[in-house]
Amino acid sequence: MPFVRDLLTLGPARRDHLPAGRIALGVALPLLMLLWLGRSDLTIYASFAAFTGIYARNEPLVPRLWHQGVSALLLLACELLGLWLAHSGTGPWGVVMAGGVVAAVGAVLAAALGLRPAGALFFVFAVTGIASLPNPAPLGVALGVAASTALFCLLLGVAGAQVSGRLRPAELSAPPPHPHTETELGAHGLRHLLAASLAGLAAVLSGLGHSPWAMVAAVAPISAQDHAGQVIRALQRILGTLLGVVLAALLLALPLSPWGLALLVVGLQFLAELYVARNYSVAMVFVTPLALLMSQLGNPVPALGLLTSRAAETVIGALIGLLVVVTLRRR
């Protein structure tokens, strides 16, 4: 069946090990440095800022530097907003409201500026993940860690562009952004606003306690380029997450030190980036334990509840995202 084939088939490799290695290094050095300093509580701020390296993975030097620089500023703004909300003692409803607004604004900006990956997934994750922290770090310290990590990822991006420049142009070219009308941008933002807000509402009412995961899962499908791709992306998110929860359970059962957790995070980041452009389901198998291990590194909690929440809230969010893309189908 074509649908099942699209859900499971690996796409062709395009020297994915090069951006995967660069992105993993952008996560590795800040994490290991913070562990060496005895500040594992700051790793979450570095990990969100390291999303900078994920953008413009196949672009030449100048557009890559521009797009990664813009993405870094947007991610730092999301972290700043999340820190302000966390220090202000906002409750889960405030997190949901902020996530919905950031989803809409971030998606419109990403589309207008031609950012790749498209959509607002990383912006929503950054603001809601930090706003939900029970004990946020001081503002200056957290932003200092985040800004330093983002700058390091920018430098790695420049170096990576120099290496990639030696490859054939056909292997490097990213699809040019499609020019959007104001109506298209408005509809795009509305889809993200509804998906994130409804998923956050459902997650809070469920009482599972991790609404950011539901909101991220809800906006993830909308970034696909067409309606069929959006439907497949939602189903891939569910399938990959459920398989990833099984892998995470096995890894969390190991008696690992923080250093061991950090090394696993780096390895999982490399594997996720190695497959994300080839099959989203496979990438999610690695992204899921990556997110859970990172959570345990900065804020350890009982593993069983964490695994249950991840599975349930991802299913809730992805189904709500699917409902939104089916209901508000774009032309």
TrEMBL record:
Subcellular location: Membrane
Transmembrane region(s): 20-38, 65-86, 92-111, 141-161, 198-222, 242-268, 280-298, 310-328
Pfam families the record matches: FUSC_2
InterPro entries (UniProt xref): Memb_transporter_dom
UniProt keyword Transmembrane, yes or no: yes
Annotated keywords: Membrane, Transmembrane, Transmembrane helix
Domain Integral membrane bound transporter: 198-324
Membrane topology designation: Multi-pass membrane protein
Protein name (database record): FUSC family protein
Classification of source organism: Bacteria, Thermotogati, Deinococcota, Deinococci, Deinococcales
